[in-house]
Amino acid sequence: MPVLAHFAIVLASLLVYAVSTHTSGQRRHPSAALAWVLTITLLPYVGLPLYLVLGTRKFVRPARRPVPPSNAPQDSPRGCSIATLEGMGLAPPTANQRICFHDDGPAAWDELASLIGSAQTQLDICTYVLGHDALGRRVGRLLEARAAAGVRVRLLLDAVGSWRTPSAQVRRLRAAGVQVHWFMPLLRNPLRGRVNLRNHRKLAIADGQRLWSGGRNLAAEYFNGHGHQAPWVDLSFTLEGPLATQAQDLFDDHWRHSRGPDSADGSPLPAAAAPREAAPAAADGPQHRAQLVPSGPDQAEDTVHDLLLTALFRARHRVQAVTPYFVPDDSLLTALCLAARRGVQVELVVPAHSNHRLADIARSRALRDLAAAGGQLRLAPGMVHAKAVVVDDTLALCGSLNLDSRSLFLNFEMMVAFYAPDDIAAVTRWIDHHFHHLPCDEPRRPSLRRDIAEGLVRWLGFQI
């Protein structure tokens, strides 16, 4: 009887998984689905509760109505990328007045402080990490000063990323007039399956017109380093123009469904609002054409992942990618390898040792496959936290998304696709300046024990 009861529990658990996955339209990748099925089958008493807490991937079903054809010309790689994003329901590219990429941490801080100080009516900040350090306190003082000046200041913190932020630090901000909300607190309705979905977007928006964004969290290591430790190499940018209006809409969606001190419902957003029409950029001056690319549970499609596939299959000459964690799914790795095999110069920059040991173990197979296909691997000696991809002279991506399965398929992320030649060249120069001097690395063949360990880490840690 105990054996029969056990099998009944296994079958019931698998039925819960199958029904909930189908009814909610999760559309998991095969490897992720297999990981869940095996975990529930082999460890049902652990696997089912884990699935109920972590199993949600999407809030939005793909549209069933026919998507109207895009106006973007598809006879060029750039036009094909734009058409792909418009086909997934994203707003078309807009022309912006100003885009500035930050060379290093001090430049990024100066731009952030300037943007915060420029806010006259409203200032909105979203970050995964608010550091409990000198820089976090500097940010707090700037926000308090704007609130004292009568500016409406809102700060959205991810409940996991900022778990080390002391409650006293938050209370001081609130006492100074700064509104602070937590995104998806862990103990709030954990059985809704959304605990695993974290807000990794980094945004600072002044008056809905100026945007600071990129890969940097608001902590010392992203700007000037800790003590004697050098700052992490990261990339961020400042933008002025219609794209900031769309980023404002994205922030507002998060804010309405996050948990504040008086919130009655901490439920996360079921879907992102349709992008509103932004005011056109001024006709005079340089036109920085760019497109906002949010990715995550509030998007029906895996927007950045699908854009990368489109761009890689159309790549002709050179692909550059910088990421702290490289654990791609099979389709993205195949696209990179095929590009390298057909003669495209594929360059990947990752830190020799990142701040996540499991990510370094899980990436090894993908690095070996890419190198075997002819890709060039450059290992940076320090921590690289930048997220950037450049494809030929047609597309540059910069923002918060890492090239790993968590960022690609689970987290709330945001990238910006840059199409203007000057902006693409600026990102290319930044990558070349920081990493072109690094020698190419040849991954070593692993031992059998290491190979098995890599597979287990990748399966267990990066599929669910």
Write the layout of secondary structure elements.
Layout: H1 2-24, H2 30-42, H3 44-54, H4 77-87, E1 94-96, E2 98-101, H5 105-118, E3 122-127, H6 134-148, E4 152-158, H7 167-175, E5 179-183, E6 203-206, E7 210-214, E8 236-240, H8 242-256, E9 288-295, H9 303-314, E10 318-322, E11 326-327, H10 330-341, E12 345-351, H11 357-362, H12 364-372, E13 376-380, E14 388-391, E15 395-399, E16 403-404, H13 405-409, E17 413-418, H14 421-435, E18 440-441, H15 448-461
Parallel strand pairs: 3-4, 4-5, 10-12, 11-16, 12-13
Antiparallel strand pairs: 1-9, 2-8, 3-6, 6-7, 7-8, 9-17, 10-14, 13-18, 14-15, 15-17
Let me know the CATH homologous superfamily of the largest domain.
Endonuclease Chain A
**What integer value in Å does the Rg equal?**
22 Å
For the record, the CATH architecture of the largest domain stands as 2-Layer Sandwich
The CATH class assignment of the largest domain is Alpha Beta
In this structure, how is the largest beta sheet organized?
A: 9 strands, mixed
Mean pLDDT reading: 86
Describe this structure in words.
The relative contact order is 0.14. The chain is globular. By secondary structure, the chain is of the alpha/beta class. The protein starts with a helix and ends with a helix. The chain has helices at 2-24, 30-42, 44-54, 77-87, 105-118, 134-148, 167-175, 242-256, 303-314, 330-341, 357-362, 364-372, 405-409, 421-435, 448-461, and strands at residues 94-96, 98-101, 122-127, 152-158, 179-183, 203-206, 210-214, 236-240, 288-295, 318-322, 326-327, 345-351, 376-380, 388-391, 395-399, 403-404, 413-418, 440-441. The strands form 3 sheets. Strands 1-9-17-15-14-10-12-13-18 form a 9-stranded mixed sheet, sandwiched between helices. The protein has 15 helices and 18 strands. A hairpin with a 3-residue loop joins strand 14 (388-391) and strand 15 (395-399). 40% of the residues lie in helices and 18% in strands. It folds into 3 domains: 2-54; 100-256, Endonuclease Chain A (Endonuclease, Chain A); 288-461, Endonuclease, Chain A, CATH 3.30.870.10.
